[in-house]
Amino acid sequence: MDIQELLDSVDIVDLISQYVDLEEKGGEYWGISPFTNPPEKTPSFSVRRETNRFYCFSSGIGGTAITFLKYYFKCSSSEAIKKLEEYAGVDSLSHGNGGKLDATMVCKKYQRPVKTVKSSKGVVLEDDYMSRYEKRDSKLDVWRKEGISDEALEKFQVYYDAFSNRIVYPIRNVAGKIVNVGGRTLDPQWKEKKLRKYTYLFQWGVMDTIYGLFENLESIKRKREIILFEGCKSVLIAHSWGINNCGAILTSHLNPSQMKVLAKLGVRVVFALDKEVNIRQDHNINKLKQFVTIEYLYDANDLIDEKDSPVDKGVEVFKKLYESRRRL
Question: Between the CA of residue 99 and those of 2, 95, 122, what are the distances in Å?
Answer without folding.
Answer: 11, 6, 31
